[in-house]
Design brief:
The structure holds 2 protein chains of 2 kinds. Chain A has a domain at 289-508. Chain A is 73% helix and 3% strand. Chain A has helices spanning 4-19, 27-48, 78-96, 104-123, 127-136, 138-148, 153-186, 193-197, 203-220, 229-236, 239-264, 266-271, 273-293, 297-316, 321-352, 368-381, 388-403, 405-412, 414-430, 447-465, 468-488, 492-497; strands spanning 57-65, 70-76. Chain A has a two-stranded antiparallel sheet. In chain A, a hairpin with a 4-residue loop joins strand 1 (57-65) and strand 2 (70-76). Helix content of chain B is 73%, strand content 3%. Chain B has a two-stranded antiparallel sheet with strand order 1-2. By secondary structure, chain B is mainly alpha-helical. Classes of the chains: A mainly alpha, B mainly alpha. Chains A and B meet through helix 7, helix 13, helix 15, helix 16 and helix 17 of A and strand 1, helix 5, helix 6 and helix 24 of B.
Chain lengths: 508, 632
């Protein structure tokens, strides 16, 4: 099947439209079936993926507006492949774990639309197409937060929408300028990313474009100080919204850095390593502190997300294979782990209708399975070796160490501060005497919840011990990316910093 | 031989997973038995490997599979069993087997019996990875793994509530567990930096490759790596200033203290320095720093043990102190001496802790030695064991500590570091004093336990039998010193005493033994006949209070680090994040809204008003254009 990517995008779309005609009663089964089929399709994509090939695969190209070089252009490589799989997996898990009762049908249809947008963003190789999916992803999330959220849901959802939309508009200007620059050099219009990769821009142009794209991605990631929409969005969003937001939507920003900023503007990326990484470090430490101060369990996880995204940005700007591949792996790791943690918080919220840490204590006794899974995810979150969380964090720090040992040591405090806020949550929630009588009758995880969580636990352990099936393709594509950056970089500084591996990989 | 490597490594994992199957069920006796047998199998495999390496002199290596392969980084799950490793393996599995068997007794009525064995075996597995890995990243897996198991086991009785420091200096098991984890993480950052430095300078993390090319690096770089790795070692081995967690870790069940916080995990730092001896041999100045710090910790910890009344804390401080001895030896370049003391100490310290466990059981978990006394009558065997342990710790002939600790003192003398020698010598006296203060307070004198209504009893026979191997080791290990030296110096550098030291050995031995005997005699005179408390002294003497409160270091850490961090975090959230960052975002949004609202009034439907605005706009644009032309 050569057009598997098209199927991956349009299958949930058609299913969502057909879902309108499915009865309320059977919508849950319908949703799970569709999401499972989509997930299996994405697994099939992986099975048919040539792991020795570093470039784009399953490429489809169809001219849409030839006058402006806009086309329907899709493809995946090792960098995007696993993010797509994660998007379909987390959608499936989110739907399995759904606990909303009102308007369940609308929720499932919305989630399927969101899946279309998520898959679309990560497989688009035409920049206009990318931008369309990028913006389209806002709409279902706006609806999820606005319709199923908490008390301040409208404020939170509108803030989320306008804030990220504003950033995207600046990016759009950047996109149009690159297209114009491409037209000026070659005489033809093209929005194809692979065409753009061949374009060498002077540094004076790169620097403006870098920041234009940066703003769009930074708000999405979100990087400090553009992050305040996130705690509101998480605070108000229903569990499934938080899971998908943290696991997949934030990755659009960090993916953007890897897919656009680095290869399109290698010289500017190198030139601005210091300011970007200082923001990343502030992000890591500052939000780790803010996370520690939180009184609400979900807000701890929300702020910890920002802190971990800081490590991802750090790894991306390491400009070597170790760091960039590590940051891509960390995107997956963070998706799985923060997704699981949001599910866990949701489970306790469903029972007690509160997420305040002060309400809990000692519940390991009544919910041993819950406590066990929470602790496993905590350990993955603090980056314990042999869990998925270690590899990405370690590689990101290792990679950036080559650029600046001092900054890496400062960023490395995340391994300490992460333990501080996560262990504090574990202690406050699970340990100590069980004092609150309302907690005495808490039921342990239900079959439904276990069905959603156990696969995530399995992934955390499996990829922690044997990351090769995932890390291998990421490694190949990252090597190719770094070679491309090195080849097209023009400033001596970029030539020096962008570090091509000695081992050139198996690029056949 | 490869299969024995796998047995030694994976039997504990199987053991842990097996016990985990029953983790939430009520006690299953089979779990205790099966795990003990599996750990015993790892011991047998380790001993077979020991004998094989003894015979062939060759290390056994296995490569399991790839782990992290990215860029030029190629990390495998690779394991090598050489002379140092096999000694560590034997020590670890021996103590682990004893502790597993003993835990069947100690935890017999604990509700979470099965869970306990799962954690305990998981610890052994992590420890085996730590000592068997053939590269630094593999070591780091074990390093973090033992940290987590330690966290789980210190906090094993998680349901206990937080107390103030006056009631319980460790606050609570879960608090102590978090403290241990976080403090170790601080050190782990140093360790990671060491690993990063090695990778970017040598392109590999495998010991053999790293140490083969270590000479290519600049001296400054070696110093950097040496310091970074040692910072990692300081966390696991609880060296000052990262030492406070070890005493608090006594909140864990006593078999855990015996295994993890005395015999094995805390010696991981020493193991690291011994393992990296080709590195530290190149940078003697860092080694000297390590020795000085170790010496300081030796006396610093011993001083706190002098006055403490808590049975387990006294042993914990003595562990700290003995770790200091090991670092002193390793720092001075006498790697095999450090390893020998590590092995000997593991045996007699585990014996002491398990003995303390018997006492605790007899006393219904009472830890205050001032409430014990006269237990010799009811607990003859435990008394004998703890007596042997204390004699070994004090370094009395012919017990193990005599051979291992005396050698460290000789090394200090031989290196002409007389300051180190003197402090370690003095500490030997203090060690003997506090060890026998403990023995006399617990087993001799008046039976103060009647006041708290305790009915002490001896431990079950099989528990006492389980302790026998440790007691035998504590008595006999010293006599194998020559064999030990011959065996490990095939891998570790030899350490030769100068002729001058050789002449002095007899005199040195005598004065060291004298100071130890003095300590014992003083303890006897003061405590053997019964406890006479001087309450005024305890309440008013500044030095006593200073020592009793651990130099106020935990309180200082609390005030200087923990509290300000919490306050800063609150400020970061409430003041900065909410009041500044988010408020400016909302401010911008409000400004847009307000200005839109204000300019809405222009849309009033009045034609003449529109014309006015049009004229104003026309004038404005004309002026702008005029200026633009003028500028050009």
């Amino acid at each position: 099947m050569s057009n598997i990517l098209t199927v991956l995008i349009f299958f949930p779309l058609i299913a969502a439209i057909l879902g309108l005609f499915v009865s309320q009663k059977s919508i849950r089964v319908y949703g799970i079936t569709v999401a499972a089929a989509e997930f299996l399709l994405s697994l099939w994509l992986w099975m048919s993926f040539d792991t020795n090939e570093a470039g784009m695969q399953f490429v489809e190209k169809l001219k849409l507006i030839p006058e402006f070089g806009i086309s329907y252009y899709l493809g995946v490589d090792g960098i995007s492949l696993f993010i797509v799989i994660m998007a379909t997996l987390m959608t499936l898990i989110g739907i399995i774990a759904l606990s909303v009762k009102e308007n369940l049908k609308n929720m499932i249809i919305t989630l399927l639309f969101l899946e279309v947008a998520m898959v679309g963003v990560f497989v688009s190789l035409d920049v206009i197409l990318f931008y369309v999916f990028w913006e389209f992803s806002l709409v279902p999330m706006l609806y999820i937060i606005g319709a199923w959220g908490g008390d301040k849901r409208l404020y939170a959802s509108i803030k989320f929408f306008i804030y990220t939309f504003a950033g995207s508009l600046v990016m759009l200007v950047g996109i149009l300028y690159v297209a114009y620059a491409y037209y000026s050099t070659t005489g033809v219009w093209s929005f194809s990313l692979t065409d753009w990769y061949g374009l060498i821009l002077p540094f004076s142009v790169q620097k403006y474009l870098f920041w234009a794209f940066f703003l769009g991605f930074a708000i999405k990631v979100p990087m400090v100080p553009f992050h305040t929409w996130l705690p509101y969005a998480h605070g108000q969003a229903p569990t499934v919204g938080s899971v998908i937001l943290a696991a997949v939507l934030l990755k659009m920003g960090s993916y953007g850095f890897v897919r656009f900023s680095l290869p399109l503007f290698p010289d500017a990326s190198v030139a601005y390593i210091t300011p970007v990484v200082i923001i990343a470090i502030i992000m890591i430490i500052y939000t780790a502190m803010v996370a520690y101060a939180q009184k609400d369990m979900k807000q701890v996880i929300a702020y910890s997300s920002i802190s971990h995204m800081g490590i991802i940005v750090l790894g991306t700007f390491a400009m070597n294979v170790e760091g960039i591949a590590g940051s891509v792996f960390q995107m997956l790791s963070h998706g799985i782990v923060s997704g699981a943690l949001f599910l866990l918080v949701g489970a306790i919220y469903d029972r007690r209708h509160t997420k305040l840490l002060s309400e809990f204590g000692g519940i390991a006794k009544v919910m041993p399975n819950y406590a066990t899974i929470f602790v496993i995810m905590t350990m993955a979150s603090v980056g314990l070796p042999l869990t998925i969380g270690f590899i990405g964090e370690y590689l990101s720090l290792l990679g950036f160490f080559k650029v600046s040992p001092l900054l890496t040591v400062i960023a490395g405090t995340s391994i300490i501060l992460g333990a501080v806020y996560m262990l504090s949550v574990v202690k406050k929630t699970f340990f100590g005497p069980l004092t609150n009588p309302e907690n005495e009758k808490l039921k342990d995880l239900s079959t439904k919840e276990l069905t959603a969580l156990i696969p995530l636990v399995a992934i955390v352990v499996w990829l922690g011990i044997y990351p090769k099936p995932v890390l291998g393709p990421i490694n190949n594509s990252t090597k190719a990316l770094v070679q491309l950056m090195h080849k097209k970089s023009i400033t001596p500084k970029a030539q020096e910093i962008i570090l091509v591996s000695k081992d050139k990989g198996v690029n056949k | 031989m490869e299969s024995y490597v796998y047995i030694a490594l994976f039997a504990p994992l199987v053991s842990s997973l097996f016990a985990a199957l029953f983790a939430q069920k009520p006690k299953v006796q089979l779990v205790g038995i099966a795990t003990s047998i599996l750990i015993g199998a790892a011991l047998v495999a380790s001993v077979i490997l020991l004998l094989d390496i003894e015979e062939t002199g060759k290390a056994v290596s296995v490569n399991l599979m790839d782990w992290i392969v990215v860029g030029d980084l190629d990390t495998k799950f690779g394991f090598t069993v050489d002379q140092v490793t096999v000694i560590m393996m034997t020590v670890v599995t021996l103590i682990s087997t004893v502790v597993h068997v003993y835990s069947n007794y100690y935890m017999e009525s604990d509700k979470s019996f099965n869970r306990f064995f799962s954690y305990l075996s998981a610890f052994v597995f992590s420890m085996m990875i730590l000592v068997m890995s053939d590269n630094f990243l593999g070591l780091f897996i074990g390093w973090e793994g033992v940290g987590v198991c330690s966290w789980l086991l210190i906090g094993f009785w998680y349901h206990k509530k937080d107390e103030t420091r006056d009631v319980n200096p460790s606050i609570s098991p879960s608090w102590a567990a978090n403290e241990a984890f976080i403090m170790n993480r601080i050190a782990d950052l140093g360790m990671l930096v060491g690993i990063f430095l090695i990778y970017w300078n040598l392109g590999t993390l495998k010991y053999t490759e790293v140490f083969a090319h270590i000479g290519d690096l600049s001296h400054a770089m070696l110093v950097g790596i040496g310091i970074a790795l040692f910072i990692g070692a300081m966390g696991k081995s609880a060296q000052f200033p990262l030492h406070t967690w070890l005493a608090d870790a006594m909140e864990g069940p006593t078999p855990v203290s015996a295994l993890i916080h005395a015999a094995t995990m805390v010696t991981a730092g020493v193991y690291l320095v011994i393992r990296a001896n080709p590195l530290y041999s190149q940078i003697p100045e860092v080694g000297y720093g390590i020795a000085v710090l170790g010496t300081f910790v030796a006396i610093f910890a011993a001083s706190m043990a002098l006055v403490n009344r808590d049975l387990k804390r006294v042993i914990a401080y003595s562990t700290l102190s003995q770790l200091g001895y090991m670092f002193a030896a390793a720092g001075l370049g006498a790697y095999w001496v450090a390893l020998f003391h590590l092995a000997a100490h593991a045996a007699f310290k585990a014996l002491l802790f398990i003995g303390a466990g018997n006492v605790m059981h007899a006393m219904h978990d009472e830890l205050d030695m001032f409430k014990m006394g006269g237990l010799k009558k009811v607990m003859g065997w435990t008394f004998l064991y703890m007596g042997i342990g204390s004699l070994a710790l004090s370094g009395i002939y012919p017990f193990a500590g005599f051979f291992s600790k005396d050698t460290i003192l000789e090394v200090a003398f031989n290196e002409h570091t007389y300051g180190i020698w003197f402090v370690l010598w003095l500490t030997a006296g203090l060690t003997a004093f506090y060890s026998f203060r403990q023995v006399f307070l617990v087993f001799f004198g008046d039976e103060r336990y009647h006041e708290i209504g305790a009915h002490p009893h001896e431990a079950k026979p099989y528990a006492l039998w389980a302790m026998a191997p440790l007691a035998i080791a504590a008595v006999t290990v010293g006599f194998f010193k020559e064999d030990f030296v011959e065996f490990v110096t095939k891998f570790l550098p030899e350490y030769e005493m100068s002729e001058h030291t050789e002449h002095m050995v007899v005199i040195l031995t005598i004065i060291t033994t004298l100071v130890a005997l003095t300590g014992i005699v003083v303890a006897y005179l003061k405590y053997a006949k019964g406890l006479k408390r001087d309450l005024e002294f305890e309440q008013n003497n500044k030095i006593y209070k200073l020592l009793y409160n651990q130099y106020y270091i935990p309180v200082i850490y609390d005030r200087v680090f923990a509290k300000p961090y919490k306050e800063l975090s609150d400020i970061a959230w409430k003041e900065i994040d909410m009041q500044v960052v988010d408020a400016s975002v909302d401010g911008i949004a409000k400004f847009v809204e307000k200005s839109g609202d204000a300019s809405r009034k222009a849309q009033n439907g009045n034609l003449s008003s529109y014309l006015n605005w049009m004229a104003a706009g026309l004038v404005f644009i004309t002026v702008i254009a005029a200026i633009a032309v003028a500028v050009q």
